[in-house]
Amino acid sequence: GAHCGAEIAGWPCARVEIADKPVLAARVLRWRSIPSRYVFVDAQADGEEWQLCFAVSQLSATALVDGALLRFTGTEEAARTRRGLRAWQCDRLVELTLCVPCDAAEAGGPAPPAPSEAALCKWFVRGACSTASCPFRHQFANEHEEATVRATRERWAAQRRAHEDAADPFAGGGGGGGGDGDGDGGGGGGGKKRSHAKRHAEFASWLLQIFGTEALRGGAGVLDVAGGGGDLAFELQCRNGVRTTLLEPREVRLDSRQRRWLRKQGEGGLGPYRHIRDLLDERFEESDEGARLLREAACVVGLHADEATEQIVDAALKYGRPFAVVPCCVFPRLFPQRRLASGGAVRTTAALCDYLLQKAPGLEAGFLPVAGRNKVIFRRAAAPPQPERTLAAPAVAYIPQSVSRAELRHAVQEHTGGKDGE
């Protein structure tokens, strides 16, 4: 189609045909993508901020720039996002203008507003922002925005009250919200609870208190499974002298704060923790190093390990090792076979904790003084191995993009005995 001839970052100001259904317009503030799946765009429209969701086949994140104008068709979701934004599921990108529209430029119209002028700070929405030079708004633009944020905060508070464990001695705090299901339970806390960001330090302190420093230093040390950025491993090994191995498939690097701390310690400490880029699965079990770590670990741990949580418990029971996990996400679609002793499905974090506790006698539950999912399922001491036990595996494995729809359907039918599965 026609364009104004201007280019931004190599992309022309392109215009395409208009659809035969109502078209909405919004100005891009920021965006993020889930590779090969979705592009989420925060955009300004009608004086407020929206969250738009596009499939990557409709919009590529590499084509976006700040201030770009999007025209699209879509359906508004019934519920707002956790940040209180109106959410739109976009079914078609009608127009993408990557510079000030030609007609606006000719008329001397203003450039798109900067994100700092348009966007409400998400941390302000959640309660407080600690960034002194935060570029986003810390005041409401109008009464509607204020009412929306107030309703969102009240909904988060109600969700926290509904999900609190009656046995939690640290319950009753405030903070950001969250929910069960396939996402992070998140949420803030107040009173006796520390910030969610302190969970690694608090869990490390809890492990030292429950198991003892000398016990954790025995054998092969602590095996931290699905430890993300390695913050728990750093707390245990670098700050507390407990040898720790991080089992995490992603690349992990020390941040500047951690490197600075190690430089100050000099040669006296254990140095950085060991990192093995792998998954806790049968292949890892069958490797010499994996089998040794599982047999000799002083404790197998997982903090918000997502899909690996049940695998950690199974591995510890199989090899007779002490363990401690803090469950968070449930992923009921990936593990539909989970059932409580009562026969009920496992769809909440509380149900997942009950499900893990029923796996073997002698398991205990405790709590961390942090906001968010803070219930710990653990076993204090080693026990006889259970070599017949197998590690839990998700019902849906990783599927490469090269797999065709027909091949996927055939694989599902084979897995489910000829019936279509979830």
UniProtKB/TrEMBL annotation:
Compositionally biased tracts (Gly residues): 171-190
Domain C3H1-type: 115-141
Residue ranges, compositional bias (Basic and acidic residues): 155-166
Transmembrane segments: none
Single GO MF annotation: zinc ion binding
Start and end residues of each stretch annotated as Disordered: 155-196
UniProt KW keywords: Metal-binding, Zinc, Zinc-finger
Zinc finger residue ranges, C3H1-type: 115-141
Xref: PANTHER family: C3H1-TYPE DOMAIN-CONTAINING PROTEIN, UNNAMED PRODUCT
Name of the protein in its database record: C3H1-type domain-containing protein
